[in-house]
Every structure is written in structure tokens, then in C-alpha cells.
Amino acid sequence: GKLDCVLSYSDDFKHRSIVYSFPDAENSNLPVFTMNYARIQVPFEVTLWVLLASFAKIGFHVYHKITFWVPESCLLISIGLMVGAIMHSVHEEPPAVLSYNVFFLFMLPPIVLESGYFIPTRPFFENVGTVLWFAVVGTLWNSIGIGMSLYAVCQIEAFEVQDINLQENMLFAAIISAVDPVAVLSVFEDVSVNEQLYIVVFGECLFNDAVTVVLYNMFNFVAEMPEVEPVDVFLGVARFFVVGLGGMGFGVIFGFVASFTTRFTSNVREIEPLFIFMYSYLAYLVAELFSISSIMAIVTCALTMKYYVEENVSQRSCTTIRHVVKMLGTISETLIFFFLGVVTITTEHEWNWGYIMFTLLLALVWRGLGVLVLTQIINPFRTIPFNFKDQFILGYGGLRGAISFALVFTLPDSIGRKKLFVTTTICMIMFTVFIQGISIRPLIEFINVRRTNRNLETINVEIHSRLIEHTIAGVEDLCGQWSHYYWKDKFLKFNNRILRKILIRDNRAESSIVALYKKLELQNAMEILDTVSGDINAGSSIVSLQYVYPLSHSSACFLSLSLSLSRSLSLACSLSLACSLSLSFSLSLLLAFSLSLSLSLSLSLSVSFCGLVTLSVSLSLCPPGCLSYTSFHIVHPSSLTHYPFNLNRSDGYLRNPEGFGLGSIYQG
Amino acid sequence: MGSTNSTLSKIPNVEELVQETGFTPAHIVRLYDRFEALDKEKTGHLRPQDFGAINRLAINPIGDRIIGAFFSPGQETVDFHSFVRILAHFRPADKKRPKDPSMPEPVNSRTSKLKFAFQLYDQDKDGKISRAELLQVLRSMLEMQVTEEQLESIADRTIQEADLDTDDAISFEEFRKSLEKVNIDHKMSIRFLR
């Protein structure tokens, strides 16, 4: 039975007591085991659903071949379909994950934050014109084209859809013409097309939100109004600018505020990541408040914020932020596709062959046409024009996804054929995600699109690229013309002079060469630490400055080049070749001071054989964060000094040790 | 068009220039106007001081090297032909050009562009970028941001990465190899010169 808990007052209201009573006190004893499901129901079910979707994800990767050919989105939808079928057969309602509020307030922001945070910034800004061109004009072209032609199709009597008027058609077209970031990114992530193409597809799907929002609201408004006046068209255009620029503006403002805040967080390192998430979410919500493009707000916020924040926060916070952003994005994406499958089964459908088939056909046709026409117009302005193969992938990669679904779900019920719209949208999504998503990888290989090799980060490439950039800037000045290098240069100067001083704590203008050098050195260090079992090891090159205090003061001088062969925690076997002039048995306590951040203690036993070779085994305990570098030195046992010859020096960069963390690696 | 033609007639050997560099006559006219604007004393030649008058070029970290690239060794002036020839390096590559091994390498091919960049480093023209030359360029690009020690570390790492025959210098082949994955045509082209 349940335990009732009653707060009771004594008669004079002076005393309170809590009385535990049983409803039937006759023969009940203290229950040892009770259950109260209703209390935890909501969080419990949320957790279970998330776990279920995540197990599905684990399951896919067991067999690697599947995920290579079939994008995860398809697999997740399939699992969702199965679960939906199960739920439908037991007449259970699935949780309302794809309802308007839940989707747009909780599911979408993490994904868009992830995309915005990891946009490759340099290619993005180089192609920003093309991206905006495709996002804005392309989406408009698609919507209007599909809307008009669908209206024409509706006039055909045989399809029995004459009751859909123009406004409703346009509204529907606005919903399904937008390329969806969730679907596109999950497919393009694994396929390595060339950078230009990737950034245009990527950027387009993020930035077309402004147009979609405007068109959706406009046509929604108009569908309920009996008449459309010309003034409304102008208002629509004005609204577009408000939505687009407002979204970007809010994003930039919040980005700067976030950067500014992190300037002061050096004493509260543990909550640093929180600021990133809170500010970007805030940007999103404020944009939603004003019904302007929240996706653009959060993307621009992430773009702006990333550069400054990563310089202000500690290394640990930086890793945490990146990792959590990715994690949240992946969870959201998984859930969205999963529930897309579930909801497909459980909603009510209305099937109409003509309308649906024509929608699919028209969407493809208009997108193809749109890409062709738009590319022709913009190609002369690009340094690398898009060839036909690129254009094909650009058109073919226009996948629709969950955003369209959420939007269609929230159409007002006053629209008569809402169920038809829902069904058509689902068909559209399934078609693009399954057919186009699965076939795009073989197609890319087949038509041999220019691919990219993403591992370009060497210091050579960086230095030479900077030299070339300076050269180009110089030659452009020589010819009396400027192009985007001029703006880039101007922005960099503004950045260095003003922005960095305000937003970054320890400011020093930094060239990308220096930044890359530090990053590469850091990567080398991290590789040493990053073994499979997470063990700390002494890496492939062991400790450096060794002050050797040999017990015997014979004139042994040994050249020790130490290589560690094992990767385990405590034992680092170092083989050192030593030329010693006499048989010496030196037990040396090496105070190994690794020139990075922490002290490591090592005990070394060296035995020399025949005066020629010394084998030394050294036990070293290195706390986490121990960096090491190769060095060999000639040591005179009789002297305490040593002569290090260092191969890779990374001193000077790694000041400010912060305990065991790698500290603020970017400072100093 | 009348002014174009008249300007064209002022320039000697226009056909040869068009043939050699691939610029259209319109471009050559534009460059000639620019040449004349720089050549304040109307001598028909440019001297280093004339280049120095361009403000933004003067504050470019490698501005003096760029200017130096225009002057062949031993020469003190640049005439219009050499001016155009150097600028032809920055034309975007012609995609449709058939690969004819008997013809000399066109001025704006990838190799020529790389050679141009290489020569910006290699001031003593010995065919290698020595450590000292690399340090000089790094110093001018990074100016006051890093200490001398850090510069040397960066230079060390750079040479270590690229130097395959361990002669502590970067030859042209090593230079080319380190940039093999970079789209040089994109990076080293100026759009309006197409």
C-alpha cells in the first residue's frame, strides 16, 4: 500500500507534526518495498528513449560496413519505424518529441550549435557571398517555383486536390523547399567532397533559415487572410531583412558578450563551459522571442565566440566545451531521426498519389534548375568556379529533414488538407534521406568529384600560405585593385588593435603561424598522453634534463639517448647507449624536470658493460600532463652540469603550469 | 574603345605580350595605365622608389621582397614588358590549355607560381631556402609577436618537416612537395586578371 504523509497541526496550532498513516491500518505492516512510478515518469521515459536511441547507434557500428554505405540517419529512421510499429500495435502514444515547442526549443539548438561551432571559418568567409546567394535566392527560387507549379498541378481534376488554394500551396512549398541542416550534415560529414562544395552546402543549409522563417510566417498569415495586398509583399521583403540581419546581429552581440565574460573567468574555471552554452542558448531564445531567425543567431554567436573564447578559457574547459557540444549535437540528431521514424507510423495519413508524386518530382526539378541557373550567375565572381560535377552534387545534396516536418506539424488546423501535407512531407523526407542519402556516396565516387584531403595542417603549409597571402595582397595593391584580401586584412587589423584588447584576457596579437605552431606542439604532446587505456606514459621519447649524480666518480662520460619502449604507467624502460671508460655502476637519482609542467621522479639503474655500453633501466613516475622531448647529452659524472642538445624545444610556450592540467597553453 | 586602341598603339610589341602572357588586350591596357600612373617621371621605366610610393605596399611585411621580384638581378629599372610578365604569374590558370610538352611552361602554371613564391624566400638565388633565409622571412612576417628563440624553434620545425634530404635547407622540390595538397592556383590567382 502507499504511504500517506500528512502534515497535521495540534489543536492550538502551535505544534506541527508529520504523521505517517496508512489508509487501512488494520493489518498492515511497514512496507519494505514501495513503488511510485508517477513521480518519476517523465524524466524516466526521456532517459529511456535517449538510451534506446543510443543503443541503436552502438548497434550500427558493430558492423562497420553498414555505416559506410548507409548514413546513420537512414538506420535510425528504420529503427524508429520499427519501434513506432510496435507502439502503434499496442496503442501507445509516443512522446511528443517532434511537436513544435519541444523540437524547436530543445532538439534543434544543440545541432545548430554544433554546426556553427565547428564551421571551418576561413573557407566560410572566403565563400560567404556564394553561401548567402544560394541560401537566400536559392530558397526563394525553390519555394516560389514549387508553390506555383503545385498550384498548377492542383488544377488537374484527376487528383482531387482542387480545394488547395494558392496560399496554402505556397505555404507548403515554403516548408519543404528549405534544405535541412540536420539531414545534410549527417550525410556530408563522412563524405569528403572538396572544401568549396562542402562549405557552400553546409552554409546554405544553415543560412536558409531566415528565408524559411519569413516565408512561413508570411504565407501562414496570408493563408488566413482573404486577400493579399501589394503592400504585404514589400512588408515581406522588409521582414526578411529584419529577420536575417536581426538574427546575425543578435548572434554577434551575444558572441561578444560571451567572449567578454570569459575574460574574467580565470578563477572559476569549472563553470567556464557553462557560459558558452548559456549564451548561445540565450541568443537562440531571444531570437525566437522576436520571431527572427534563431538558427542564424546561434550560428553567428558560435562563430563569433569560438575564436575569442578558446583563447581565454583553460585547455580543459576548451576540450570540455568541444566535447559537450559534439555530444549534445549527436544526441539531438539521433533522437530527431529516431522519432521521425516513430511518428511516421503513429500519425494519421492521407495519401494522394498525384500530389505526392508531383511534389517529389517538382522539388527535384526546381532544385536542379535553381542550382544550374544560380551557379551560372555566380561563377564569374568566384575564383574557383563550380564545374558541372560540383553543381550536380550541390543539387543532389539538397536533403530535407526534420525541420520541415516540425513546421508542417504545426500548421494551423484551419488548413483543410493538413494531413495530406503531413504525409507528403514525410514522403519527401524519406525519399531524400533514404534514396539521395544512400546514393550520394557512390555517386560522388562514380562521377569523381574533386575531393579534399583534410589533413593540411603542417607548419610549412601555414607559413607558405601566409607568405602567398601577403604576396597577393601586395600585388593587388600594386595593380591598384582590391578584393576580399583587402577586407580580410582590414578586419585582421581591427581585430588585433581593438577587439582582441577588449575580449581577450592576456592579449598579444598573434599570427596564425604562431597559433598553428603552438597547436601542433600541443598535438604532439597530447598524442603522447593519449593511449588507448588512458595510461600515462613516458611516450616515445623520455625525459630531458637529467641531473645525474653518479655514485662513482669515475671519469665515465655517457651519451644517453633514451627511448622508452613501453607505454605503461610506471615502468619506462630506457635504453641508453653509453660510452663509459670504466666499469661503473651508477645508481643515479634523476630528478627529471620535464620542461613542460610537472616534475617527474625517476630512478635509474645503469650498468655498463665492458666499459662500452651502458644499459640503464629507469623507473619514472610521471604525473599526468608530463611532456617530454628528446634530448641527448653528454654527462660528466664528476660534474653536475650537463650539456643538453635539444632536438625539439618547446619551452617558452608552456609557461604557467596549472597543476596537472596543461594550463593555458595559448598564453605565453 | 577609341582610347583603348590608341593606348594599345603606344605599347610596343603588344602581340608578343598577349601571346606570351595570355592577357587580353583590355587587361594590358589597364596595366599600362597603372604603369604610367606609377611612373611619375614618365621615363618609361620604374625604379624601386616608384614602387615605394604605394602606401599599402610599403607596410606589407614582405613588400620589399615583392618589389625586388620585379627587378631581374643586376637591373635597376623595370620596363613595361617585365612588369606585365611578372604580373602574368598571378593569372588564374587556363583550364582548357592542352598540355603540350614541347611548348615552354606558361607563366601562370602551378610550377611557375610556386617558383615565384620560392624566389621570394631565396634571395641569394642558390636554389635552396637556407635556415637563415627562412628566419628572415619569418621575422618580417611575425615582427614583434615572438621572441627570437621562438622564431628559431618555428624555423627548426619548418625545416624538419620539409627537409627530406637532410641538408638543413629546403630545395625547390621539397618546397613543392610540402605544398602538394594545396590548391596553389586558387591561392595565387588574382581574379580580375583572368
Provide the low-confidence segments of chain B as ranges: none
Gross geometry of chain B? globular
Number of helices of chain A: 21
Query: Average pLDDT of chain A, to the nearest integer?
Result: 73
DSSP strand content of chain A? 5-15%
> Beta-sheet strand percentage of chain B?
5-15%
Distance between the termini of chain A: 67 Å
Please write the string of helix (H) and strand (E) elements of chain B: HHHEHHHEHHEHHEHH
Classify the secondary structure makeup of chain A into a structural class.
alpha+beta
Q: How large is the count of helical segments of chain B?
A: 12
Overall pLDDT level of chain B: 80
Helical content band of chain B: 40-55%
N-to-C span of chain B: 20 Å
Helix content of chain A: 55-70%
Over the alpha carbons, how many angstroms does the gyration radius of chain A reach?
32 Å
Major sheet strand order of chain A: 3-8-9-10-6
Count of strand segments of chain A: 12
Sheet with most strands of chain A: 5 strands, antiparallel
Query: Largest interface: which pair?
Result: A-B, 42 and 50 residues
The largest sheet of chain B, given as strand count, sense and whether it forms a barrel, is: 2 strands, antiparallel
Keywords for this entry:
heterodimer, A: 668 residues, alpha+beta, 5 domains, five-stranded antiparallel beta sheet, three-stranded antiparallel beta sheet, 12 strands, B: 194 residues, mainly alpha, Recoverin, domain 1, 2 domains, two-stranded antiparallel ribbon, 12 helices, 5% strand, globular, membrane (chain A), sodium transport (chain A), transmembrane helix (chain A), transmembrane (chain A), transport (chain A)
